């Protein structure tokens, strides 16, 4: 048992590890096993401060379940100064439109936000959002806890000039908001380099009004030039030219976030097994994201047989891979099962027992 120390003004009796577990179970409804785990990270000498922290959270709408979630994720917050550390931050959020259920959800999702500096992180970030976003966009941002947290955690003064650069290129406000939600780190990119990437993306042929423009910028900001060249070289090894790679990138930029192994696997299957050309893949770029096990292999085996029997044309393959399951079963399975009784067996067997070449990377 730990030695008793000096407790200053706290008047509550000293708490042992056992009493800490009891406090967590009785006050916050922890399961005993969870309480024991959390108690290992806490050094509660008295219950005075934890009581005040709990009272503060409850006073602004947090339930015991919410508080238990916060404490389980960040136990030390139970010992934070409720007056000097927690209340000012919670009050600031509330005064700036993040209150009620939104505040509860944001703090519960990531309690470490209450460990961020109010003066150096939280206030500058909220001021930034109020400056660069229209009112309706701010409300949308804070209705998504993970998005709001991402902005606060990744906040940088570089965001302001980078957003202005996007605006100067004609990028719609809705797409800027999407970038802020999905990839706030991209907006913290070096301003000079950010301008260079926007120029490069426009030269590739992206439409600044489209959402793919944002994905293109995010992809290039997150990838060093050497890595880009290495991935392009994989395409070249399958006979692709630079223009063909860029044409695919413009249609589906997120595919370049895939590993080189995944790119190689996809190109090998579509080009060597299905005999697709670069233009076929560019016409249906979404196929590069589809599951080999659940969709690409079983459906392609069915289509190969239907093509062999002269029941469909090769041009049907792309559509067959991307349509929803119920449509595929109706159009390509039920319609031909009488002519090819083994069709269902082929489909199911390729879903369950995949050849080694079709196993996902």
Describe, in plain words, how this protein is organized in 3D.
Helix 18 runs antiparallel to helix 19 (316-322). Helix content is 64%, strand content 0%. It has helices at 17-28, 32-39, 48-59, 64-73, 82-95, 100-109, 118-132, 135-142, 145-154, 159-168, 173-182, 191-204, 211-221, 225-236, 242-251, 260-273, 278-283, 292-308, 316-322, 325-334, 343-352. Mean pLDDT is 85; it is low at 1-15 and 353-361. Among the domains are: 1-80, no CATH class; 290-358, no CATH class. The radius of gyration is 28 Å and the shape is extended. With 361 residues, it is mostly helical.
Count the strands?
Answer: 0
Outline type: extended
**Oligomeric organization of the protein chains:** single chain
Biggest sheet overview: none
Estimated structural class: mainly alpha
Mean pLDDT reading: 85
Q: Which spans have pLDDT < 50 for at least 5 consecutive residues?
A: 1-15, 353-361
In percent, how helical is the residue content?
A: 55-70%
What order do the helices and strands follow? HHHHHHHHHHHHHHHHHHHHH
Terminal residue distance: 52 Å
> How many individual helices?
21
Q: Beta-sheet strand percentage?
A: under 5%
Output the radius of gyration. 28 Å
Topology, element by element:
Layout: H1 17-28, H2 32-39, H3 48-59, H4 64-73, H5 82-95, H6 100-109, H7 118-132, H8 135-142, H9 145-154, H10 159-168, H11 173-182, H12 191-204, H13 211-221, H14 225-236, H15 242-251, H16 260-273, H17 278-283, H18 292-308, H19 316-322, H20 325-334, H21 343-352
Helix pairs in contact: 1-2, 4-6, 5-7, 6-9, 10-12, 11-13, 12-13, 14-16, 18-19, 18-21
């Amino acid at each position: 048992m730990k030695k008793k120390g000096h407790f200053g003004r706290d008047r509550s009796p000293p708490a042992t590890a056992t009493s800490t577990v009891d406090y967590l179970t009785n006050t916050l409804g922890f399961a005993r096993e969870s309480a024991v785990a959390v108690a290992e990270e806490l050094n509660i000498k008295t219950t005075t401060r934890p009581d005040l922290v709990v009272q503060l959270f409850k006073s602004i709408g947090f339930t015991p379940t919410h508080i238990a979630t916060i404490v389980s994720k960040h136990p030390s917050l139970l010992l934070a100064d409720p007056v000097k550390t927690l209340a000012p931050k919670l009050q600031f959020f509330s005064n700036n439109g993040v209150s009620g259920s939104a505040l509860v959800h944001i703090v519960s999702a990531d309690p470490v936000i209450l460990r961020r500096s109010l003066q150096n992180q939280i206030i500058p970030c909220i001021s930034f959002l109020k400056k660069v976003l229209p009112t309706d966009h701010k409300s949308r941002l804070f209705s998504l806890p993970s998005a709001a947290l991402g902005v606060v955690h990744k906040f940088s003064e570089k965001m302001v000039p980078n957003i202005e650069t996007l605006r100067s290129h004609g990028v719609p406000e809705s797409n800027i908001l999407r970038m802020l939600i999905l990839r706030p780190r991209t907006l913290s990119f070096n301003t000079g380099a950010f301008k260079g990437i926007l120029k490069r993306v426009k030269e590739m042929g992206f439409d600044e009004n489209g959402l793919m423009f944002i994905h293109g910028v995010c992809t290039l900001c997150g990838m060093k030039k050497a890595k880009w060249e290495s991935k392009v070289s994989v395409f070249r090894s399958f006979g692709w030219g630079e223009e063909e790679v860029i044409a695919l990138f413009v249609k589906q930029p997120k595919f370049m976030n895939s590993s080189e192994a995944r790119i190689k696997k996809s190109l090998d299957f579509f080009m060597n097994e299905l005999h697709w050309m670069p233009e076929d893949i560019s016409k249906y770029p979404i196929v590069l994201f589809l599951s080999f096990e659940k969709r690409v292999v079983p459906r392609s085996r069915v289509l190969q047989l239907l093509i062999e029997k002269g029941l469909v044309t090769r041009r049907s393959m792309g559509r067959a891979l991307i349509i929803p399951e119920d449509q595929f079963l109706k159009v390509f399975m039920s319609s031909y099962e009488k002519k090819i009784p083994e069709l269902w067996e082929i489909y199911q067997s390729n879903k369950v027992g995949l050849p080694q070449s079709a196993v996902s990377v």
